[in-house]
Amino acid sequence: MRNFRLFIALLVFTFRSVSIWGQKDKASEYNLKAAFIYNFTRYIEWKEESAENEFIIGIIGASPINDPLGEIVKTETVDNKKITIKRFSKPADISFCHILFISQNAGVALDDILAKMSGKGTLIISEQNGYAELGTAINFVIVNRKLKFEANVRAINSAGLTASSQLLKLAIIIK
Amino acid sequence: MAVFKNLSIKNKLIIIQTTTAFIVVLVCCIFFVLNDIKTFKDTARRKMYSLARIVGENAVSTLVFLDQDAATQILMKLNKEPDITQAAVFDKNGKLFARYAREQPGSDKDKLMVSYKFYQEKEFMGTVVLHAELNELDKIIGNYIKVTVLVLLAAIMAALLLSAFLQRSIVHRLLKLVSKTKEIARTGNYALRVEGAGNDEIGILSDGFNNMLEQIENMNRFLKENNESLKNYSLSLERTNKELEEFAYISSHDMKSPITSLIGMLTLIQQKEAVQPGQQHLFELAVNSARQMQKTINALNEIIAFRKTLKVEREKINLVEALEEVKLRIYDMITSSGAVIQADFTKCRFIYYPAVHLKSIFQNLITNAIKYKQNGHPPKIDITTNCEDKFVVLEVKDQGMGIDMDLYKDKLYGLFQRFHTHVEGSGIGLHMIYSIVESYGGKIYIESEVNKGTTFKIYLANGTL
After folding, report:
1. What are the two backbone dihedrals, phi and then psi, of residue B102, each rounded to the nearest 5 degrees?
2. Which residues of A touch B58 (CB under 8 A)?
3. Number of domains in chain B
4. Tell me: the pLDDT tens digits for B82-129?
5. What is the pLDDT along chain A (175 residues), one digit of tens a residue?
6. Which residues on adjacent β-strands are paired with residue B129?
7. How far is CA B257 from CA A48, B20, B260, in A?
8. How far apart, in whole angstroms, are the C-alpha atoms of residue B418 and residue A39?
9. pLDDT in tens, B96-108
10. Which of B57, B63, B65 to mutate to test the interface with A (most CBs of A within 10 A)?
11. Considering only A131-145, B371-385, B415-429, which range has the smallest mean pLDDT?
């Protein structure tokens, strides 16, 4: 927990530079995205998956988020479960995970992923404009140089998950 | 306070009761108002605190996702609360995260500030701070003041009515006592009494008053009786005195002609040379005794005649003129003795005194001074006056033979007292001066030294016309 505190402090610091956003600073953008992904876990009601005793975050495609997310995973838990990161390169490889992050650089047809993961209780997070309309649960966007996120409530619900109102009130809701 | 002291007891009682009621009600009102204000503030604070808690719980996710706009929007919802002037969310580092201000801060009347720290899973996330203005409080205090004034007025009215009713039992009876006192002072009738006493302090006062009246009445009666008997006694004394005076007058008067005829007879016998030559000596002794007796009887007559003149009216007398008249009367005596009389009346020229008596005093003093001169020296007499308060001090100084004060001090003013037997005298002069001076309330002081002289200092009570 102590480390997390430090981390958040660091986050707030970076957030300020993000808000300035002088030149595209990919590293701080992904630091923030990693922190957001971890924080989403607190505002989603997860399905009771009997067998699982760890919380799995899947990443498809290579992404700068790897490192910061790896840092968080070392110390934090979700519902007292350890967090594991699984990396996939093509939709066929994807196994069960609680969160699936689709990297910009995935180069995979979104439809394939959606078809594969539908109804499995996976929160699909993307970072490309228009993806939420296409069916991902949450989609990171940059608005006024700030990191925001879109939420597709129907997609969240059809995955069998429930998003907290506290989360939805901060999201750009996509119908 | 001096004003209060002079008020009647009735008004004092009313003021005391009204003031007491006023103070009691005022204290109660102040207590209740302060208590209510405190309760109001506490309630307001609790309300603010729950608002802060709700805001805080809602702001957690905005902090987590660094969404300042969302946090500001949450705070904006507080604009439905008219009391809240400012609201702010601080992150866990104390940095301002979002802020809402309804009006410019500055007026700090009845400011209320609450802060609420919010947590997520025991993790400190930030603080909500609310500033509020107690707008309602002014209205409430205004209402309280109105109510308090009304209650105070009602209390004063009630106290006035009640005291007007209650004071009758005290003041009415006191007034009765006062009017009785006035009546007694006016009529002098000490037989009056105060009725309907009772057992309280006023009752004791009335009883004491009645007792005092009784004592005064008794004393009055006793004094009247005593006075009556004293008057009777003095009347009988006066009568006896008059009878005695009458007796003295008659006897001295009746003795006058027998002694005159006796002396006449003795003279005839001597002229007829009827005395045996060997018995001449005895005969002369008899003649001397008879003359002595005649002198005494004459002096007695003079005294009695003088006593009848006492209590004569006073008049304004010029002292110089009075002295001149006396000097004329005894002209022969003055010239034959060669007496020198020096008078200085510059300090006090006039006196209000019975003229006969003043002249008598002058005459007796001067004749005494001439009679009792030192052998071989013509008498020298100094007369001066002085004004002292209500007295004219007459000082007569001679250089005569003087009186041995050690021997005769107590006998100076006695009738027929004589201190120098070798000189012709009847022994009534000083007695007469003393009688006059004393009868008008004056005093005589004598300083004398044998063979040096005598100084008479006579305080004549100066009357006014």
Report:
1. -80, -35
2. 166
3. 3
4. 888 889 999 988 899 999 888 665 555 667 889 999 998 888 989 999
5. 445 554 555 555 555 544 444 445 777 889 999 999 999 998 998 877 656 688 899 999 888 898 899 988 888 888 888 899 999 988 888 888 899 999 988 888 888 888 888 888 899 999 999 898 998 999 999 988 889 999 999 999 988 899 999 899 999 998 8
6. B88, B115
7. 176, 100, 5
8. 151
9. 999 988 866 555 5
10. B65
11. B415-429
Both tokens of B457, joined, read: 């200092």
Q: What CATH number does the domain containing B12 carry?
A: 3.30.450.20
Looking at B277, B308, B339, which one is the last position of a domain? B308
Angle between helices B9-64 and A26-43 (to 10 degrees): 120
Domains and CATH numbers, chain A: 2-174 (3.40.50)
Q: Tell if the CB–CB gap between A4 and B123 is shorter than 8 Å.
A: yes
**What is this structure's pTM?**
0.50
Tell me whether residues A42 and B70 touch, CB distance under 8 A: no
Nearest to A9 among B67, B93, B120 (CB): B93
- Contact between chains at A166 and B95 (C-beta distance less than 8 A): no
ipTM score of the complex?
0.76
Domain boundary among B308, B332, B349: B308
Nearest residue, CB atoms, B61 vs list A8, A146, A170: A170
Say if the Cβ atoms of A42 and B123 lie within 8 Å: no
Q: Which residue of A8, A12, A170 is in closest CB contact with B67?
A: A170
Measure in Å the smallest separation between the Cα of B113 and chain A Cα atoms.
27
B interface test, pick of A12, A17, A21, A144 with most B CB neighbours within 10 Å: A12
- B128 and B264 fall within a common domain: no
Binary contact (B95, A43; C-beta < 8 A)? no
Crossing angle of helices B68-76 and B9-64, in 10° steps, is 150
Residue of chain B whose alpha carbon sits nearest to that of A14: B66
Q: Do A12 and B93 make contact, defined as CB atoms within 8 angstroms?
A: yes
3-state secondary structure B99-157: EEECCCCCCCCCEEEEEEEEEECCEEEEEEEEEEECHHHHHHHHHHHHHHHHHHHHHHH
- Any idea what the CATH number is for the domain that residue B372 is in? 3.30.565.10
H/E element, B396: strand B391-398
d(CA A33, CA A147): 8
Show the CA angle centred on residue B270, arms to residues B268 and B272, nearest 5°. 70
- What's the confidence (pLDDT) of residue A17? 45
Are B51 and B135 members of one domain?
yes
B95/A12 touch (CB, cutoff 8 Å), yes or no: yes
